[in-house]
Description:
- The protein is built from 13 helices and 14 strands.
- By secondary structure, it is of the alpha/beta class.
- The strands form four sheets. It has an eight-stranded parallel beta barrel, surrounded by five helices.
- Helix 1 runs parallel beside helix 11 (about 390-405), helix 5 (about 185-200) runs parallel beside helix 7 (about 260-285) and helix 10 (about 360-370) runs parallel beside helix 11 (about 390-405).
- The longest helix is centred in the middle third of the chain and has 26 residues, at about 260-285.
Amino acid sequence: MTAVLALTAVAASWPPTASADPARAPWLPRRALWIEVSANLPTLSSRDAIRTLVARARDAGFDTLVPEAKNAWGFVMYDSAFAPHIRTSPVARPFPPAYPPPPEWYPADFDALAVLIEEAHAVGVRVHAAVNVFGEGLVREGVGKAFDRPEWQSVHVMRAPEGTGVRLVPASGAPGTIVYANPAHPEVQLYELAVLWEIVSQYAVDGIVLDRARYADLTADFSDLSRARFEAVLGRPIAGWPEEIVQVSSDGTMQPGPLFTSWVAWRASVIRGFVRAAERVVHQVRPEIPLAMYVGAWYPTVFEVGQNWGRADAPPLFAAWSPAWSDATLLPHLDYVLVGLYYRAVSRGEAVRQGAPPWRSVAGGALLAREVTRGTPVVGGIWLQVYAGDRDRGRGALHAAAELTDGLMVFDLSDVVQGDWWEAVSHP
């Protein structure tokens, strides 16, 4: 509990959160609960189970549920005219809650998103639907839209097998779990915008949260399409591709090339273009609902995924910063930012004692997020699995996020249930 006590002084020195503001937007979550589809699929398979979930969440003080209408690997939980439904996924879940492939048991005519909205609204709980934007497949299982449309896949730069030079591989052959689509591909963008349009035009959602609206990491995307688009911005061909942008050393680490800073800014502009279009789609159909984005709290490394969720005049916190990067800010198109404060350390002092910068803590990440987004509400997310076996530390993290940001998001429902966190999340 020492971390919680230490936060009192931190909070006292920071401007009041929006939760104390009488002008607080009515749609801004005070307490939100994330619902990851595959981890909670049995609960999302019947009206009775959903009704029980909604009642338990409401009794625990949650005013907003955040179900993944489109999950991390591109399957949806609603009746879509074109996106693959989770009931068609051949992927079984071997760990709790374990279940066989959904085609064997998930009801063929059940619209989980529609039922969840109906049950939530019946008891005064809002639903902000999350859309995992550019995740379109699972690497190991070989399933997802990215395998049906391989030209959509991001292309990653990797060290050549002999240890010198580089090779370019599609996302399905790169390290990692999720197959990312190329954010710069026009067909990919139109597909993801169509998903958003389908949700906001057919379902009474109270908000939209964009997740994975970014590049997978620093190794993506080095496709011919991205090269052509980047060269068009530069106004010249790139002779050394991809070495003029990144170079891979013999130990596999990546080093910036002479065009790295321009590349970082260009990727951020691609994401800005998509988010701007997403905002138009959402607000042309439903101008009254908020559009948010789910991001990681590690802003000093955010250039690696091309996602500038800081304000244009945010301090330059990394070497690849440029005016073009600052121009690619996403904040003009977002109503709030949901920040994942996924750190074991709760206080800034604890992070420093462990040899990490102060922002690598729940409190430090929250304060930095508020600094770089000043003027845009921030909701702090806590991943309960990080504190498995340490209930006091988990309580401290929940308290810090609630006190130092404009709202609290708990990730994920399955962790709350399996870890029996209901009492703790009821009193952060």
